[in-house]
Each structure stands twice: as C-alpha cells, then as structure tokens.
Amino acid sequence: MAKQHLQLTTFVLVLILIAGCSSTPTASTDPGNHQYTQTPCWLHTPYSSQAQGVIAITAEFGSGDTKALSREMAVASLAEVYNLSTQGLDEQDIYQNTISLSGHSIGLAPTWTHAGQHISYAYLANTQADHWVLNSCAQPRCQPERCSPSWLCEENTNHYLSAVTVSQLAATQREQYRFLFENALAQLRTTHGVKVEASRAQLHTRSGSALNLSSYLREREHSSFQFSEMSGSVPLVLTDSCRYDTTLYGRLMLKGVTNPHADLLPINQDWHLDLSSPGEGMAVGHFSGMLSHNLISLRIEYALRNALLELARSHQVQITSDQLHINNLDGGYYSMELVTEDTQMQMRVRVRSVRFLGTSDDPDVYVLVEGM
Questions:
Q1: How far is CA 182 from CA 13, 203, 205, 329, in A?
Q2: Do residues 248 and 227 touch, judged by C-beta distance below 8 A?
Q3: Rounded to whole angstroms, how far apart are CA atoms 95 and 256?
Q4: The whole model's pTM is what?
Q5: Consecutive sets of 10 residues in the chain, 372 residues long: mean pLDDT of each?
C-alpha cells in the first residue's frame, strides 16, 4: 500500500466553499434579483456532482463594495483550485451571472447576505449547475450519534483521500472555516501520514472551502503520495458541512491524492454505538476533557493512543500506558511494541475512522484502529 506523505515549506489557507445539498431544495429559475427562501444549497455541500465551486466571505459593511469583493475573491479562489489564470478578471463585470476565465466559463450564483456577511459562490458553469445554484435548502443540523447527515459516518470508499472533522466556535465565520481546514490537515497527518511543514504560516481568510496545496509541494516527483495522473493540482476541498449549535462539521477531500483504504473490507458504520465490539481485530479509543491547548489534533492523538492500548488488551495482554511503545510509521501506520518479563508483542496498526460525538461546544473524540 502506498505511503501518503506531503511536504510544504509554507502553506496559504484560502477559505473557499464548494457546493451541494442533502435536503429537499426549493427551486428558482430567475437569477435576476434572486432571493433565497432559505440558505443556498451550495453553502452546505460545497463540492458535489451538482456543481463544483467555491465560496468567499466578506463583511457586509466596510470600505468600498464589499459584495463585489466577495464575488471577485470567489472567482480568484476557484482559479487557484483549478490552476486558472486570473488575467483580465478586473476588467470583467463581476455582477454578471457568468464570466470567462482562461477559456473557462465561470458561473457566479446570487450573493447571499446574512448576519452581516456577504457570501458569494463561484463554480464551473454548465446548464445543470446554473439552475441548481439558485435552489434553497434548510440548513442541515448535525446529529453525530445518529449519523445524520449520513456522510458523518460513511466510510470513505471514494478514489480520493478525505476526512470528517470539526471546528469549534470562532470569532468570525471565516475564522471557523480556516480552523476546519487546519484540523483536517492535522487529522490527515494522524490517519494517513500527511505531513505539513510550515516554517511560515500565511493564513488568508478570503474565502471558505478549498486549499490548493500544489504550489507548496517540494520535490513533488519524489513524494510518496500517489497522485492522480490527470490531476494538475492538489486542492483540499470542503464537500459537505452541517452545524451542531456553534460547532461546524465538515467533510474535506484531498482531490488528486488516492485513497489507500478504498479497497479495504468495509467496517461497521455504527461502530461508535458499541465500543466494546467494533469488529474483529479492531479497537476503539476515546478521549474527552480539556487539554492545555485544547487542539482537536491533540485530542485525536490521545484517543489514538487509548485505542492502541485497547487493541493490545484485546490480545489478553494486561498493560499500562507507559509499558507500550508506539512508533509512527510513514503513511499513517503505527507500530506498537510491548516487552515485559512475561510477554513480547509487536503489531502494525492503521487508523480506520475518527468520530466526534457528545456536546456541541466540546465534542468527544473516538478513534477506530485495526491490527494488520
């Protein structure tokens, strides 16, 4: 199985949103002076078969035309994801429904203004997407224990690598999306060995749901990542989102990087309901409570260590945490070793799933591991 390894000397976070919707939409056909009856469907499932695009967020009140700025930033962010030139963008009417960029037709949905913010959506235009982006949807509410929406618990069987993660309450909505991406990258590091080396972090919050990593790959041809032959870029895109009170849940896909678990036998989707019997050769680790830094990545690491302890104990080995030696291998694999006077054990382990449950403002973390 290929190892997954990504190195960046710096990373620029460009908040963008990419669209789709799981609830029943309210349709509209007239883009002129369009008013959404609920939230736009593209806000909740930003990257789907319905449309592929990104959002940008600006304050409603500020100097200059902040609405036009949000639309320009959405187009610029989409261009970054798809490696399109933005030459001539400033000469086009940004309030048009469609503009041309590098020979591509770029659609712009009607901007949604809500709670003091302009949220704009740019997408790859086609007939289906042009109609779909006008639809309104009820804002989905996350119910993690019930796996609702279903993507919260669905195992990733797609071609590309992905992660479901959370972002807690932040000062602004843009900041919350930024933290969602940071958490996703940290989570992919733990589960699949994605390594982000940032000697200088430049966090630009001009948009909300994608981060193009390709510009920051060092010696990409020597990377142990498996890249799609047809992918010229490596964007991290938000495909789905929902809220549980103040906490934002999101599923993010590392498009262009193959999923090493796509061909594995499926796991029990409801493994979080019976932690004592997650499946043969598997174990669950749990972590709750506050940490000094209270980072999601640290919570995952604590839950992972607890899962490895449970897996060792499932082999009738009675151990304590300080007796277990864990090595982080490339590609998201772990080697755990136990040597005592009576027992010698060594096992290679991989992470199969991560779940966030419990209260909205302080979710518990559960990690499912599998011995190999």
A1: 8, 10, 12, 22
A2: no
A3: 32
A4: 0.80
A5: 40 38 44 79 89 86 89 86 86 93 93 90 94 92 91 85 87 82 82 54 44 42 40 72 91 80 79 76 84 74 85 70 64 65 71 84 85 78
Helix axes of 173-192 and 296-313: crossing angle, nearest 10 degrees: 30
> What amino acid is encoded at 127 in this protein?
T
Closest CA to 228 of 256, 261, 253: 256
β-bridge mates for residue 210, sequence order: 237
Tens of pLDDT, residue by residue over 34-58, are 889 999 999 998 888 999 988 888 8
Q: Which residues of 212-223 are buried (b: 16+ CB within 10 A; e: fewer)?
A: bbbebbeeeeeb
**Domain coordinates in residue numbering, the chain:** 1-261, 271-371
Residue 162 tokens read as: 């992905």
